[in-house]
Amino acid sequence: MNMLHARRAYQATRMAMDPREQEADVFRRVTGALKAALEQEGILRARAIADNRRLWIALEASLRHPANQLPQATKLSILSVGRAVLREMETDKPDIPFLIEVNEQLAAGLG
Fold first, then answer.
1. Which terminus of the chain is less hemmed in, N or C, by CB atoms within 10 Å?
2. C-alpha dihedral, 52 to 56 to 59 to 60, nearest 10°
3. Are 46 and 38 spatial neighbours (Cβ–Cβ below 8 Å)?
4. Measuring CA to CA, which residue among 110, 100, 84 is closest to residue 49?
5. Are 70 and 53 in contact (CB under 8 A)?
6. Where are the beta strands (DSSP E) in the chain?
7. Reported pTM
8. pLDDT tens digit sequence for 35-71
9. Nearest to 52 by CA among 37, 72, 69
10. Cβ distance 25 to 106 under 8 Å?
């Protein structure tokens, strides 16, 4: 029962977060998985990279959405970085430290 209370408290805390802080939190969690993947092979590494890919695809969709109010130059800059990240993840051996660095920079800009 304590786990249920902890989960509810966590969800309530996240709901109270500013949307930008929620986005930064997602980047931090995905980045944490990438950091763990540095020491791992196999499914955990593949999952971390796949989660990072989904995050960047979702970010790209958000940036392209007509309701997005970021300045056009900012959107284009982030989209350009996102394309580089997605290309890197398509390689046989993605440069995980590069992916971590980009995610940390974006999270810092959001948080």
1. N
2. -170
3. no
4. 100
5. no
6. none
7. 0.80
8. 999 988 889 999 999 999 999 999 999 999 999 998 9
9. 37
10. no
